[in-house]
Write a structure and sequence with these properties.
CATH topology of the largest domain: Aminoglycoside 3'-phosphotransferase, Chain: A, domain 2
Strand order of the largest sheet: 1-5-6-4-3-2
Number of helices: 11
Radius of gyration: 23 Å
Number of domains: 3
Strand content: 15-25%
Largest sheet: 6 strands, mixed
Shape: globular
Helix content: 25-40%
Order of helices and strands: EHHEEEEEHHEEEHEEEHHHHEEEEHH
Structural class: alpha+beta
Length: 383
């Protein structure tokens, strides 16, 4: 693949904030020579990326030969290692690390993504993985974290055939090994049907529905809490020696600084909250590590559709490993608190269900000494 030319940007300052506020020049440069010109843009997302920011923009484009189309353009100011042949480098006017630009799905950190999102190309990929289909698959991108991962549902002949997970190439073998270890310990995670070193894994489709979709049916169920406890005990017994991906508590300094930057008027309150967190952590020494999921929430837990108090699956174990055995409870409670806050103005019943379930989980965890000190008041009722 020929390297895209480097372009020098004009019309914006060096800071990420200025680039975010005035992206026109960078977006124009990212699209230069493509036969498409920028008409309008809308901010889609902003994420942390290797000491910088990854900014995504939904753009409306005019085509050189007539007509229009939409696209998703990313500008990355971070300094993670990347194959520069896969990005357009935009030089800053005053020097410094260049901005990396690309148009979805040409994600430079996920080289398997472009083929995994085109039906004909995905069919070839599946055949190479040893899982050919009789027809052309129907694809649905379920999630996409730029530079990190994507999940694509694969259907053919009216049936789900599995899920393609696209990750950074160096993580594929690690994730495949995690799935094997979890399955060996009796944890109901998907089997890895095939994987490749360019960052592609084919996972089996598990039965069941996300517990989040039936929260109103499980929020008052002691049987569901029993199932959650049993699931976490299974996870704790998975034989694993590598550390889990750093979680919110381990990265609390980053979150504090990011919140202060995003909410300068509330910086004093943010500092006070984090100071209280530090005091709580100091009073509760971390126990011996066990295997943890690290990103446990109700969308990761699959339940029987007819009997939702029965857990039938656990997904997205990419971040699992050794860690604080209380962290999964803390993460689960934090997600429930956000869910309650999110729904409180437009779906009071859903919000109340999240609060009830959070209180039940916290009460059960407190009796067994499993709750994280940072989660003590996480699921208190929102005003």
């Amino acid at each position: 693949m020929a390297r895209a030319p480097e372009l020098v940007l004009t019309g914006w300052m060096d800071s990420d904030a200025e680039l975010l506020a005035q992206p026109r020049s960078a977006l124009d440069a990212a699209l230069a020579g493509s036969g498409r010109s920028l008409r309008e843009w809308r901010l889609n997302r902003v994420e942390a990326s290797g000491g910088g920011r990854l900014m995504g923009f939904d753009v409306d484009l005019d085509l050189e030969g007539g007509g229009t189309e939409t696209a998703l353009v990313f500008l990355d100011t971070g300094e993670r290692p990347v194959d520069t042949d896969r990005v357009r480098l935009l030089q800053r006017p005053e020097g410094g690390p260049p901005v990396r630009a690309w148009v979805y799905p040409q994600d430079p950190y996920l080289p398997a993504l472009p083929a995994a999102t085109v039906p004909e190309a995905a069919a070839v990929l599946l055949a190479r993985l040893g899982a050919p289909l009789p027809g052309t698959p129907a694809l649905e991108v379920l999630s996409y974290r730029p530079g990190k991962r994507a999940v694509v549902r694969v259907a053919e002949g009216g049936r789900d055939r599995g899920y393609l997970k696209i990750v950074q190439p160096e993580l594929a073998s690690h994730i495949a090994a995690l799935h094997e270890a979890f399955l060996g310990a009796g944890v109901p995670v998907p089997r890895v049907l095939a994987w490749s070193r360019d960052g592609l894994l084919l996972l089996e489709a598990l039965p069941g529905a996300p517990a989040a979709s039936v929260i109103d049916r499980v929020c008052g169920s002691d049987a569901f809490i029993d199932e959650l406890d049993g699931l976490r005990r299974l996870v704790e017994r998975v034989p694993w020696v590598e550390a889990a991906r750093p979680g919110a508590v381990e990265r609390r300094d980053w979150y504090r600084d990011a919140l202060c930057e995003a909410l300068p008027a509330r910086a004093a309150r943010v500092e006070a909250v984090f100071a209280r967190l530090e005091r709580s952590l100091a009073r509760h020494p971390e126990p011996a590590p066990t295997t943890v999921h690290r990103d446990l929430h109700l969308d990761q837990v699959l339940v029987d559709r007819d009997h939702p108090d029965r857990i039938v699956g656990l997904i997205d174990i990419d971040t699992a490993g050794l860690g604080d055995p209380r962290s999964d409870t803390g993460g689960l409670l934090a997600h429930l608190a956000v869910l309650a806050h999110w729904h409180r103005d437009h779906d009071r019943a859903e919000a109340e269900s999240a609060v009830r379930l959070g209180e039940a989980i916290l009460a059960r965890s407190a009796t067994r000494g499993r709750s994280h000190p940072c989660s003590r008041r996480t699921c208190s009722r929102t005003p």
